[in-house]
Amino acid sequence: MERREETIGTILSIEWEMMDKVQNCGGRAHCQDDWETFRLMRTSQMHAWNQPMLDSYLDDLRSAQTEGRNLLCEKYAYMMERTSPAEYAALRGFLPVPSLEKEWLADWICREHVLWQEELAAQYPVLASRGRGISRSADRQNAASFETYLWGELLTYSVETLRLYAAYVEKLRKAGRNMNRMILEDTVDRCGYPSLEAAERRLSGAGLGA
């Protein structure tokens, strides 16, 4: 567990440094100065991963640093293909071109996560409503859906990391587990709720004393 927490801590440190250097068309975004929310959300996500995935992604981040690349910048740029096509057209020449395997893996992982998110939304509609629209059909100008946001991030991962990710998704599916639920459970726990049900009741305005 100590190694796992150390790996996650290093990942967040590198990601936050990259986040700080993202250049937005409309100026610096509020989230770039909100370390606590960033740490909460990314820690919950990383806790749902296995160690091989964490190790491989950390290698991706370190390789990007060596090459002078910013994976957070690349993530937001890839997302713009769907949310801001005109701006994306001006940036695409500066982005690494994903291989066919990378595109296939990213699309497959996204489809599985969308199914998981739809399952979660059916069970906890109030919690789900506080996040992004689920599928790419909810994309709007400068507003990415859950699917597109994930897709943009996955395209910044190496093929090796995506292979590990896909294998883990398949393993969870066979075990009847939902990675999105795992992430949300970790998030609400860190926010002080004993369960998803308790968070759903509290946020819906019912059971305020619970």
Question: If you had to describe this structure to a student in words, what would you say it looks like?
Answer:
- The chain is mainly α and 210 residues long.
- Helix content is 69%, strand content 0%.
- The longest helix is centred in the middle third of the chain and has 24 residues, at 100-123.
- 28% of the residues are buried.
- The model has no long low-confidence stretch (mean pLDDT 92).
Strands, helices and their partners?
Elements: H1 2-20, H2 35-47, H3 51-67, H4 71-83, H5 85-91, H6 100-123, H7 125-129, H8 146-154, H9 159-174, H10 179-190, H11 196-204
Helix pairs in contact: 1-2, 1-3, 2-10, 3-9, 4-5, 4-8, 6-8, 6-9
The helix/strand series, from N terminus to C terminus, equals HHHHHHHHHHH
Structural classification: mainly alpha
Task: Specify the biggest β-sheet.
Answer: none
What's the pLDDT, averaged over the residues?
92
Radius of gyration from CA coordinates: 17 Å
Query: What's the helix count?
Result: 11
From the spread of the alpha carbons, the general shape counts as globular
| Helical fraction | 55-70%
| Beta-strand content estimate | under 5%
Strand tally is 0
Uncertain stretches of 5 or more adjacent residues? none
End-to-end distance? 32 Å
